[in-house]
Amino acid sequence: MSSIESRYGRLLSDFEVGATYEHPWEVTVDGGTLALFQASFLDATPIYSSAVLAKSCGLSDRPLHPLLCLNLGLSFSVHDVSEQAIAHLAYIDVRFPEAGYVGDTVRARSTVLGVKPASSGDKGVVHVRTILENERGAVLCAFERKALIRAGKLAERPQWALSTAAAEGAKTPDVQSFPSVPKALRDGGKGGFGPYANDFEPGQVFTHAIGKTIGESEHMQLTALVRNSHPLHFDHDYCKVHSFTKQRVVYGGLVLTWVATLASRDLAGRALWEVGLDAGAHPNGVIGGDTLYAASKVLAVDGEKVTFRLVGVKNRTSAGAYAEHGDALFEDELSKKEGRIKEKVVEITRTLLLRRK
Amino acid sequence: MSSIESRYGRLLSDFEVGATYEHPWEVTVDGGTLALFQASFLDATPIYSSAVLAKSCGLSDRPLHPLLCLNLGLSFSVHDVSEQAIAHLAYIDVRFPEAGYVGDTVRARSTVLGVKPASSGDKGVVHVRTILENERGAVLCAFERKALIRAGKLAERPQWALSTAAAEGAKTPDVQSFPSVPKALRDGGKGGFGPYANDFEPGQVFTHAIGKTIGESEHMQLTALVRNSHPLHFDHDYCKVHSFTKQRVVYGGLVLTWVATLASRDLAGRALWEVGLDAGAHPNGVIGGDTLYAASKVLAVDGEKVTFRLVGVKNRTSAGAYAEHGDALFEDELSKKEGRIKEKVVEITRTLLLRRK
Amino acid sequence: MSSIESRYGRLLSDFEVGATYEHPWEVTVDGGTLALFQASFLDATPIYSSAVLAKSCGLSDRPLHPLLCLNLGLSFSVHDVSEQAIAHLAYIDVRFPEAGYVGDTVRARSTVLGVKPASSGDKGVVHVRTILENERGAVLCAFERKALIRAGKLAERPQWALSTAAAEGAKTPDVQSFPSVPKALRDGGKGGFGPYANDFEPGQVFTHAIGKTIGESEHMQLTALVRNSHPLHFDHDYCKVHSFTKQRVVYGGLVLTWVATLASRDLAGRALWEVGLDAGAHPNGVIGGDTLYAASKVLAVDGEKVTFRLVGVKNRTSAGAYAEHGDALFEDELSKKEGRIKEKVVEITRTLLLRRK
Prior knowledge:
Three copies of one chain form a homotrimer.
Chain A: E1 20-22, E2 27-28, H1 31-40, H2 46-49, H3 51-56, H4 66-82, E3 85-95, E4 105-117, E5 123-134, E6 139-150, E7 205-207, E8 212-213, H5 216-225, H6 236-242, H7 252-262, H8 264-267, E9 271-281, E10 291-302, E11 305-314, H9 318-325, E12 344-354
Antiparallel strand pairs in A: 1-4, 2-4, 3-6, 3-9, 4-5, 5-6, 7-10, 8-10, 9-12, 10-11, 11-12
């Protein structure tokens, strides 16, 4: 009565610095993928929703929303990288060098940049770079991330789950040399609404007024849509044993996306591109039924590029959180010795390319 | 520690009679939009679901469901018209002059027809006409509606949220002169099921047997899909303060659509078009978990056009409601002095174009 | 105050052996249909999700997932066959002879193979064969099923709900002579992940580790998407009266699909086709909030064809169920005199076409 029970992901000793894992998912993105994304994230950036506007800006169609690409890349990597992870620790240097479109077939691969055992010996930090590309080799998203992984080797990992290391030519490319926005992108001269790049001033704080309550079905659907295979997000019986909250936890990539889109009507009605994200973390978790709110602080304005610190809080308005915590709301949670903000669910630095007046 | 907290919509003194507001949303409709619509509304009208049947009837593809167009137009206007509204009061003269298709990029604009302060001085009624059109200027939906709005001016409305009044040429057109069905539409001679136009007789009452329980995630997804930005529908913390029920309220355009589609298998299996809706209201609200039922009364049969009074009730069958209330079920709720039907959630007059035997 | 309350489906005396019912639904499948399917079923079979891989295997695009086709065929038939059914008893000889694609407009029809009254006189078993075909007459799915139906004739069934019996030429074809996989399908030589056909050995048992909690909204959306009109799945007030559990019951075709896809990462990463299903049943029901787990036992390996017995259990892991019940977990539940496994929700024999090493 023995049975085979395969598990995926890796424990700390399963990672090899320098190795590249080809993730198994291969998915043709269609209009339904976009519609489901739009049906949960009320994003107000017109270039991502209007083929007419996108074409007037030099693109060949509505591009896939960059945060959809981030979610696809992150989720595809779970099977090989983080399905056994205790926690996602950091988003680093997220870029969207080229535009993806409906009809693209996307794949992802990850290279291990570092493995650092903790002094406690029972866990460690894995640092990977992941890229998502389409069938023509266009890189739609590249990012680094760190995850906290238990020590050891995964006994139940079947031989066939070990993705072949990519061939030499298929290594993750050096994204440092990539353009920060799609080459064809230009200001189409009209369309959009709300503030221009030169309406922003460093130091401005926006407490975005409207929140979003997370439905159980909608977060599970989005998790499956992007092929995130971590059972923490959709397997209640697993969670009763393995989750701190004893409940399903909303996948962090979605939390980030909800918070970014809650800010979009105030900030991104004239955005042309999400240039990049950096220094991001999820200080606290989110469960179905929680209501998310967003706040943004302008860090820098550099021509068409405006850099914000974006923060998400749960179950209270961002105006309330800002009134209580002041500018500490925008400070890195994980480097704080005291005064941690327990309602903060995401913090990240983001740069938008915006039209100028 | 001051922050910017933008709010959208308008208070009574923000409206100017004759002004036209271009709503910011610009959305390319795709197959996913249709699939999500079909995944909540089990509509039985074949011309809206079958490209083969639609082409045999002179259209170039499956048309966008007229009630999807109504929901897009209504929702796009929330940002400028009703995001601060207390209540939606009336649907008036809803028309669907031209067919929209997958791939259309749609926008909407509204003209203020009237502003009428209430004698109490603290609120008033705003009357607007809204049209939804595609990038070729085809009008997919035109309607008037009335909303109850608080007095005053909206302090937090940012300068950039004031949509530019449309240029002269872009005023909402006089839809009175528009055709009531798409010009190309004709009876394709086959397809469909159920009753023909000449099977109906004035005075017939249909208590549609099957109900639909509303899921929290599904109504929130549909609300975001059509870009309805009123937090009453998806922001639980807002609702704890601002909603009479202290809960999220299902967006009325969806309630209307559920009730219409619950009637569709009995009435619309041979329908070719939704000619128009009129004299509609939502006497009571709906929350997630409620079960909706529909009843229809035939008001008139005029060749291929059959006019019904459509009523939706919640948490009891329409047969039960009709047995208790009789024909009063089909009488205007808001004009009743007494005997209001507290389970009635929508009432509207609708005309269908149906095939004849 | 009389009203018309139409009901659909049939009671036992409404069925005529040999009759063929053309089901009214006619639906153009789009990318959104696929996306919604993928958003609930985290299926790992790459040929169903990647146009690139599917084309390398001789198909003209991503094929519609065979289990989506089964769900469409089953659901379309509910209107005429099982909307009054007490229970779905058996899946028999399910085949997927040709591949369907996005853009196909699908219809279904059913032929009554047998009607067998029970000795109790109050009910009986109806046996039908159903096929789903596209507008070019390609048969995407063919299956037989048995349902338990109450005795009598359905009084409220309107004349217009009686689908015209199909013309002679439109009888359900003899699927015995059909190919078991699409003719054009061939091993594309690369792609996919996990075990090959010749990695399996008869007798192997897989207890798939990860489960899936069913959301209320998501199962209702999928039910409407495939046009399943049985109110047991989405009408809470109906269920309070007519459901044993007093709750909405998840449509069985979805339960089967969740369980099959929970097995997919371990078994079907190199699958090219779902050759067929047989001897299937749902011994117990599933409600929203239940968590499903899957187990598979290899019954036979015949070249590229591997036959499994697939079992689904609820609210406990399949490893736990196998540890308790041993091989009895894979034995037919309905033929057991004692020791029935109350957590088993589906059992079926399935054959996959898999790549060989």
